[in-house]
Amino acid sequence: MSSQNRTGSRRKQITTITGLALAGALALTGCSPEVEKGWLPTERGTTSNTGLIMDLWVNSWIAALVVGIITWGLMIWCIVAYRRRKGTVGFPRQNSFNLPLEVFYLTVPLFMVLVFFYFTDRDQQQIDDRSKPADVVVDVRGKQWAWDFNYKKGAVVTEDLHETGVQAHLTGNNVDKEKLPTLYLPVNKSVDFELNSRDVIHSFWVPAFLQKRDMIPGKTNYIRLTPTKEGTYDGKCAELCGEYHSEMLFRVKVVSETEFQAHMNQLRQDGNTGLLGDEYDRNPVPTETK
């Protein structure tokens, strides 16, 4: 066997082994819980929306990875197949156009974008569906650099109640989470968050819920979800809002309805009746401009 044939055979073996190793590595990592949930900071079933959001996230990455592999493979194949050979002179033969190829790379990406748009829009509409009244409505007011929570009278809350929060003070040590503003939610009850700002743009974010939405002065944004797993979850402002943005922390406690009603009774006993509305905003927006 000539040296050229031996070299070509060795290259094929190396390519085969490398391909099998990469495929094996991908298969092994695909079995891990972190990969199955796309390295997201939560578990399925934390709220009514987390499973849907995780599926959309993971499937989007799978589609992007498949497209990337095909694209990279075609690029590498073109580099190898059409490389300049030793002893070649002049320019390669030029092609002015290739109609089937041009139709292919125009229609296939368009089809892919439409498919991605369809699934994203379908899931987004389901997540944001507020066609039915929520069991609990909480008017969340972001302010530099804390939170106010207004529990509005409705199916579960029998009287307008409020709770004010104070700014966390980070000293480099562990945060005393018991002193953070805490939002209480009853498990398995649908919740509407009405998101408002008292001063500048903030952003309401509970990482475990996989939902974040901006709080814009003069405009009310909404998040609809049903917490389905009891527990305590960290929250924070996710929009740079000033000097102490990093200290704008809060917690969410998802509890049984009995414990939720006990907390509402405590607020009532403490005299926290009524709502803290936009009359406490630092920069109130005239009603006619809202």
TrEMBL record:
<keyword id="KW-0812">Transmembrane</keyword>
<feature type="region of interest" description="Disordered">
    <location>
        <begin position="270"/>
        <end position="290"/>
    </location>
</feature>
<keyword id="KW-0479">Metal-binding</keyword>
<dbReference type="GO" id="GO:0042773">
    <property type="term" value="P:ATP synthesis coupled electron transport"/>
</dbReference>
<feature type="domain" description="Cytochrome oxidase subunit II copper A binding">
    <location>
        <begin position="133"/>
        <end position="266"/>
    </location>
</feature>
<feature type="transmembrane region" description="Helical">
    <location>
        <begin position="103"/>
        <end position="120"/>
    </location>
</feature>
<keyword id="KW-0813">Transport</keyword>
<keyword id="KW-0249">Electron transport</keyword>
<keyword id="KW-0679">Respiratory chain</keyword>
<dbReference type="InterPro" id="IPR008972">
    <property type="entry name" value="Cupredoxin"/>
</dbReference>
<comment type="similarity">
    <text>Belongs to the cytochrome c oxidase subunit 2 family.</text>
</comment>
<dbReference type="InterPro" id="IPR002429">
    <property type="entry name" value="CcO_II-like_C"/>
</dbReference>
<keyword id="KW-0472">Membrane</keyword>
<keyword id="KW-1133">Transmembrane helix</keyword>
<dbReference type="InterPro" id="IPR045187">
    <property type="entry name" value="CcO_II"/>
</dbReference>
<comment type="function">
    <text>Subunits I and II form the functional core of the enzyme complex. Electrons originating in cytochrome c are transferred via heme a and Cu(A) to the binuclear center formed by heme a3 and Cu(B).</text>
</comment>
<dbReference type="GO" id="GO:0004129">
    <property type="term" value="F:cytochrome-c oxidase activity"/>
</dbReference>
<dbReference type="InterPro" id="IPR001505">
    <property type="entry name" value="Copper_CuA"/>
</dbReference>
<protein>
    <recommendedName>
        <fullName>cytochrome-c oxidase</fullName>
        <ecNumber>7.1.1.9</ecNumber>
    </recommendedName>
</protein>
<feature type="transmembrane region" description="Helical">
    <location>
        <begin position="57"/>
        <end position="82"/>
    </location>
</feature>
<dbReference type="Pfam" id="PF00116">
    <property type="entry name" value="COX2"/>
</dbReference>
<dbReference type="InterPro" id="IPR036257">
    <property type="entry name" value="Cyt_c_oxidase_su2_TM_sf"/>
</dbReference>
<dbReference type="InterPro" id="IPR014222">
    <property type="entry name" value="Cyt_c_oxidase_su2"/>
</dbReference>
<dbReference type="GO" id="GO:0016020">
    <property type="term" value="C:membrane"/>
</dbReference>
<keyword id="KW-1278">Translocase</keyword>
<dbReference type="GO" id="GO:0005507">
    <property type="term" value="F:copper ion binding"/>
</dbReference>
<keyword id="KW-0186">Copper</keyword>
<dbReference type="GO" id="GO:0016491">
    <property type="term" value="F:oxidoreductase activity"/>
</dbReference>
